[in-house]
Amino acid sequence: MCSDALDNSPKLNELPGELILEILQHLTVVRGYLALPEEEAARKAENAQRIAALHGLSLACRRLNYIATPYLYESITNLGQSTNWTNVDSLLNTIKKKPAFLNFIRYIETDGDEFDAALGSELETKLEGLRRIDYDAYNYDTCIEERTRHIMFPCIVVVSTLISLARNLESLAIDRRFREDLQPFEKTLEFLALDTLDSSWLVELEEDIPTIGSLREFTNLKHVEVSGMVLWSDDDGTVKHPRLSSILPSALETLIVNVEWEDDVEEALADLAKDCAVHFPDLKKVDCSWRPAPMFVGRDLITEFEKAGVSLKLDIASTTEEEEKRIEAEMIQMEQDIEYMDERAEAIEEEIRRFDEEVTQMEEVAHAQETSSGKY
C-alpha cells in the first residue's frame, strides 16, 4: 500500500511551475565569505550540495532544465583554484556555446588570485546581469618573501579584472584577514595605515564587521592611521569596546583615527587620555578630526590630553554661533540620508517587482512549451 502511494505521488517535473520555482529559491547558494574557518567550510559544503541539486534538476528533463538553468548559472563559485581547472574550462565552453547564459550571472566567487588567468580574455564581455563578486582572502597564504609579492596584490588583480569583465557590476566584496597578513612583521613594522571607509558601505547591514584585533604584539609600531571600523566593531552598543590602551602598541607616537563622531568615540578618547602616561610614554599626537566634534566636549578632551603631554587635534567650532551652524548642518545631512535610504528602498522594491515579472514570464513560457509538446 505504501508502494502504491509512492507510485501515485506526483513527479517533480509534474508540479506547477510556481511550486518548482519556490523549491529552487531554497537551492540558491549562500553568498559571501565567512570569517570563521569552520563556518566558511560549512557554507562551502552546503553550497556544493545545492549546486549539485540544481545540476541534477537541469539534467532531469527539458522542462526542469529550462526552469533550473537560470538558477544554476546565477552564482558562479570556486573559480581560480590552482588544483582544479575543470570548472573553469567547463564554464568557458558553455558560454562559448550559449553566450545568452551570461545574462543569468548575478554573483561570482573566487578563492585565489588566479582569477585573471582563470577567466582571461575569453570572458572579456559585458555580464549584463552581474551584481556582485566575492573574493576570498580570509585564507590567503601569508606573503612569502621570495615571491616578492605585495600582500594586497590579489586585490589589484581582482579590481583590474572587474573593469574588463563586468562593466555593470554594482558591488564588490573583498575580504581579508589583515591581522594574519601582518603577523610576520610584528617585530619590524613601524607605520600602519588601514582605510576601510569606503569598503564598509559594501557590507550588508545585518552583517557584523570584525575589527583588526589587538596590535600590542607590534612592538616597534610607532605610527597608526586607521578608520574607526578597524578599531571598533559596528555592533549595536550591547558589547563594550576594549580600551584603546589594551589594543594599541606601546611604542605608539602618533595615532590618527578617521571616524564619525559618536559617544563611544568620546569615551574612548577620554580613557586614552587617562592611560597615556602609563601605556604610551612616547605618544605625542592624536588626530580625530575627520568629522566635527561637539565644541564643549572637544575642548574638555583637548585639555585632558594636554595634561598628559599629548596634542589632540579635533575639528571643533571656535564660537557658539559656529557650533549652532554645525548642528543645523548635521540635521540637514540626516534628513538627506533618510531621503536617500527611502530612495534605495524604493529601488529595491522595483528590482523585486522586475524579478517577479521575470519569474512569471518563465512560468508562462514553460507552460506554453509543456502545452505544445506534452509531457517529457
Keywords summarizing the entry:
376 residues, alpha/beta, Leucine-rich repeat, LRR (right-handed beta-alpha superhelix), 12 helices, coiled coil, LRR_15, Leucine-rich repeat domain-containing protein
What's this entry about, in short?
By secondary structure, the chain is an alpha/beta fold. It is built from 12 helices and 9 strands. The protein has a 5-stranded parallel sheet.
Number of strands: 9
The succession of helices and strands, N to C, reads HHHHEHEHEHEHEEHEHEHEH
Q: Which parts are unreliable, with pLDDT below 50 for 5 consecutive residues or more?
A: 80-85, 112-126, 135-174
**Global shape:** elongated
Distance between the termini: 27 Å
- Named at the architecture level, the CATH assignment of the domain at 182-316 is Alpha-Beta Horseshoe
Q: Structural class of the helices, strands and pairings?
A: alpha/beta
Mean pLDDT, to the nearest integer, reads: 73
Q: What is the CATH fold-level name of the domain at 182-316?
A: Leucine-rich repeat, LRR (right-handed beta-alpha superhelix)
Beta-strand content estimate: 5-15%
- The number of helical segments is 12
Give the helix level as a range of percent: 40-55%
Protein name: Leucine-rich repeat domain-containing protein
Organism: Didymosphaeria variabile
Domain Leucine-rich repeat: 174-286
Coiled coil: 317-365
